[in-house]
Design goal:
single chain; alpha+beta; Heat Shock Protein 90; Ribosomal Protein S5, domain 2; Rossmann fold; 9-stranded mixed β-sheet; 6-stranded mixed β-sheet; elongated; binds adenosine-5'-diphosphate
Length: 624
């Protein structure tokens, strides 16, 4: 028999599994049952929708056999099975191997992260077995094949005998060690309790022949044992149960079993709606973003069932992009089994359900924001970006839905604030909602242009993510209050003496001389209305701020977009006097001063002077 090698990553993962010290090895059973259930789902759906297949509900089940003598544990299913090629492709490589995070975790042999964050499906068998054999016969095929492996050294595939369609996974359970009692997994009671614990809601019967005892006939004290088939799981899917019977724990277990995520969900939502369109749904708001969430590989969507039969794994039409983090399922008797993907998009019932779900998710998030602040902040750290992109995309069409869900860091104690809270604590006379963007909160607060605003006792939103400013600019205002960047070249509404003073008139010549030196580097030079103790700052005009310019520069295919920069000079600062004096008496010195002040303004904004060496030399010249 020819032995084949695993792909490099699979091999590393298997080594890790074989030598695993992971404490919850028992999850291997959940993984095998969940694979079996998926295979049954596929077959069940096929049988229901294909008139050529005779359908008998009793044909769909999972069977577990534990044999202490041969130390084998079998998990059999009557699902769709695998062809030779599928055995090779599905079991010889790992599905997640494309993702960089996964690769890194494997390379670093980061066991906890791999099992905790990615799950390892079928391969987790190697945590408890020396040898794994899979015998499978695919639907529509007369041939069966056997896949065998003893771990990282490779696997072999050969023809096999199998009467019925489906898959049989046979584990040769490891010998007990000092630390681990593997024999436990061959114990019927243990297996039964593991099924109850992890797989109770599987919709197909999980059968096992178990040993029971009863009083011997005609005796009132002597017992005899006998063997009997038992269905281990309750089989009622969780979404068909009454909310009252279910505990938080049940929802959490279901979340894990379904691989919706490996974290502890922040919130679950159980909907049971009756009406023109009846449906049940279980939705989850995860606490952590899945490893591929912010990549293009991520697919949003909910599982879609029609009267308990799975018709689609990821129905994207059920979720708007801005709620793409929601996990879960929808089951409705109003949807046809045979509906195609294309038709679904236009299905009125589906649209109705999607709308209701969005409304419900928004409601839950708002409640969380009001009642469970810490949880909400955790949610926002994971998924706030998605909401903000939601505000920004589609030219702000979702502003109304999302604006109340946004929170931003604020100059008040650098804590999160919601826009409504910001408005409610605004002092009288404040005209705008102020913001500043950058990547370091302390530095943002020290920006010269923030000083006067803060002095007035006004709160400033600290925008730390690139998307923030794009989103706020797209929104324009919140409940009638305009957003205003403290770096805006226009009026900041500070209603200060300074604001009246800002007259260019008497120094017109000076300002045009400065502009002359700086040329196109700035759009304009003007006396500042917003500076207090600092001599200069840069502000910007138009669509692009300086922070946005910085961000756009790193975008793929960046065109060299520039913000329209205004150099503002504080006429109340001594430096302004020195500048004026140089302008009148010493052109060379004037030139030096202008360039240094401009360079300084750039540095404050986190930008480099165009010629850093020249700037440094200028400082030296000044010292001499
Ligand atoms: P995942 O279930 O996350 O895709 P696994 O490693 O558990 O990853 O399984 C890999 C693939 O092998 C599955 O996606 C499925 O196509 C196939 N597979 C596993 N177990 C079975 C089974 N019992 N019947 C049919 N196909 C299976």
């Amino acid at each position: 028999m020819e032995k084949k090698q695993f792909k490099a990553e699979s091999k590393r993962l298997l080594e890790l599994m074989v030598n695993s010290i992971y404490t919850h090895k028992e999850i291997f059973l959940r993984e095998l049952i969940s694979n079996a259930s998926d295979a049954l789902d596929k077959m069940y759906y096929k049988a229901l929708t294909d008139p050529d297949i005779t359908f008998n509900k009793d044909d769909y089940y999972i069977r577990i056999e534990a044999d202490k003598d041969s130390r084998t544990l079998k998990v059999k299913d009557t699902g769709i099975g695998m062809t030779k090629k599928e055995l090779e492709n599905n079991l010889g490589t790992i599905a997640k191997s494309g993702s960089l995070e996964f690769k890194n975790a494997i390379e670093q042999k980061d066991e906890i992260n791999i099992i905790g964050q990615f799950g390892v499906g079928f391969y987790s068998s190697f945590m408890v077995a020396d040898k794994v054999t899979v015998i499978s016969r695919a639907f529509g095929s007369g041939e069966a094949y056997k896949w065998e492996s003893e771990g990282a050294n490779g696997y072999a595939i050969s023809p096999a005998e199998k009467a019925e369609m489906g898959t049989e996974v046979i584990l040769k359970i490891k010998a007990d060690t000092e630390d681990e009692n593997y024999s436990d997994f061959l114990d019927e009671h243990r297996v039964r309790s593991l099924v109850k614990k992890y797989s109770d809601f599987i919709r197909y019967p999980i059968k096992m022949t178990v040993t029971k005892s009863r009083l011997k006939e005609g005796s009132d004290s002597e017992y005899e044992t006998y063997r009997e088939d038992e269905v281990l799981n309750s089989m009622v899917p969780i979404w068909r149960r009454n909310k009252g019977e279910l505990k938080e724990e049940d929802y959490e277990k279901f979340y894990k079993e379904k691989h919706y995520g490996w974290d502890k969900p922040l919130k679950y939502i159980h909907i049971n709606a009756e009406g023109t369109v009846s449906y049940r749904a279980i939705l989850y708001i995860p606490s952590a973003a899945p490893f591929d969430y912010y990549t293009k590989d991520y697919q949003k969507g909910l599982e879609l069932y029609s009267s308990g039969v799975l018709i689609m794994n990821k129905c994207a039409d059920l979720l708007p992009d801005y709620f793409s983090f929601v996990q879960g399922l929808v089951d409705s008797e109003n949807l046809s089994l045979n509906i195609s993907r294309e038709m679904l998009q236009h299905d009125r019932q589906l649209k109705f359900i999607a709308k209701r779900i969005s409304g419900k998710v928004k409601g839950e998030l708002l409640d969380m924001l009001k009642g469970e602040r810490e949880k909400y902040e955790q949610f926002f750290k994971s998924f706030g970006r998605t909401l903000k992109y939601g505000v920004y995309s589609g030219y702000g069409i979702n502003k109304e839905v999302l604006e109340d869900l946004l929170i931003f860091y604020s100059s008040r104690e650098k804590k999160y604030v919601a826009l409504e809270e910001y408005l409610s604590r605004m002092p009288e006379g404040q005209k705008y909602i102020y913001y500043v963007s950058g990547d370091d909160m302390d530095r943002m607060l020290k920006l010269p242009q923030a000083e006067l605003v803060l002095d007035k006792g006004y709160e400033i939103l600290l925008l730390t993510e690139e998307v923030d400013e794009f989103a706020l600019r797209m929104m324009g205002s919140y409940k009638g209050k305009e957003f205003k960047s403290v770096s805006d070249s226009g009026d900041l509404g500070l209603d200060d003496k300074k604001e009246e003073k800002g007259e260019e008139g008497q120094n017109k010549e000076l300002y045009s001389a400065i502009k002359e030196i700086l040329k196109d580097k700035v759009k304009d030079v003007k006396p500042s209305k917003k500076l207090k103790t600092h001599p200069v700052c840069l502000s910007s005009e138009g669509l692009l701020s300086i922070e946005m310019e910085k961000f756009m520069r790193h975008m793929p295919g960046a065109q060299n977009l520039k913000a329209e920069k205004i150099l503002e000079i504080n006429e109340g600062h001594p430096v302004s006097g020195a500048l004026k004096e140089a302008f009148e008496k010493d052109k060379e010195k004037f030139n030096l001063y202008v360039n240094l002040l401009y360079g300084q303004a750039l540095i404050i904004e986190g930008l480099l002077p165009e010629d850093p060496v020249e700037f440094a030399n200028g400082v030296c010249r000044l010292m001499n």
